[in-house]
């Protein structure tokens, strides 16, 4: 499946050149914006894999637009394209979590490898986020099960192992997660 890209630059010629480079390389340019506001709206509509974002644009600059895109998780990654290489812009870009920072003029030999590295890094970050989410859910589920085991131990005078086996058996009998059985036990004892 083609990677979907939004281009945001206030210069029509730059947008056209970037679009041509990307489409020839096999990417799908799903939207082009002339300011940060339109870039955010395009991202809300298309949820692209990547945004190429100019920094200096009217209405909403690229840094503010990037902040919104990252906060709302509207795209997998953002690469800033700019004529500015000052430390203040680079620091702000780092703080916003952009994946790349390219100083104009940009050509195909610079742009395409940067895009591919960004796609690779965004996949890696997504995997790490998913792993962290699963680990957090596992810990939360264990807390609920431990609480339910404590209730069973107290109410029935059984061992911890017996309480666990009781929750597990109910889970298998009802064909639902142990967490759901544990929640029912907790709710029933309130």
TrEMBL record:
Gene3D superfamilies: 3.40.50.2300, Winged helix-like DNA-binding domain superfamily/Winged helix DNA-binding domain. SMART domains: ANTAR, REC. GO terms for biological process: phosphorelay signal transduction system. The modification 4-aspartylphosphate is found at residue 54. GO terms for molecular function: RNA binding. Keywords: Phosphoprotein. Residues 125-186 form the ANTAR domain. Residues 4-119 form the Response regulatory domain. InterPro entries: ANTAR (IPR005561), CheY-like_superfamily (IPR011006), Sig_transdc_resp-reg_antiterm (IPR008327), Sig_transdc_resp-reg_receiver (IPR001789), WH-like_DNA-bd_sf (IPR036388). PANTHER family: PTHR43367, TWO-COMPONENT RESPONSE REGULATOR-LIKE APRR6-RELATED. May play the central regulatory role in sporulation. It may be an element of the effector pathway responsible for the activation of sporulation genes in response to nutritional stress. Spo0A may act in concert with spo0H (a sigma factor) to control the expression of some genes that are critical to the sporulation process. This is Stage 0 sporulation protein A homolog. It comes from Crassaminicella thermophila. The lineage of its organism: Bacteria, Bacillati, Bacillota, Clostridia, Eubacteriales.
């Amino acid at each position: 499946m083609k990677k979907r890209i939004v281009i945001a630059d206030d210069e029509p010629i730059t947008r056209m050149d970037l679009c041509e480079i990307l489409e020839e390389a096999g990417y799908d340019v799903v939207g082009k914006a002339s300011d940060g506001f339109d870039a955010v709206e395009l991202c809300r509509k298309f949820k692209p894999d990547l945004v190429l974002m100019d920094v200096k644009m009217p209405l909403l600059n690229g840094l503010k637009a990037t902040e919104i895109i990252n906060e709302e998780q509207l795209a997998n990654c953002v690469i800033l394209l700019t004529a500015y290489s000052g430390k203040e812009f680079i620091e702000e870009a780092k703080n916003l979590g952009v994946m790349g920072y390219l100083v104009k003029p940009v050509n195909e030999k610079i742009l395409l490898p940067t895009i591919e590295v960004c796609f690779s890094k965004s996949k890696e970050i997504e995997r790490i986020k998913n792993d962290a989410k699963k680990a957090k859910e596992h810990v939360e589920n264990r807390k609920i099960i431990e609480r339910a085991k404590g209730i069973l131990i107290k109410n029935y005078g059984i061992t911890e192992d017996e309480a666990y086996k009781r929750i597990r058996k109910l889970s298998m009998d009802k064909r639902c997660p142990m967490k759901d059985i544990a929640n029912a036990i907790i709710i029933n004892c309130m």
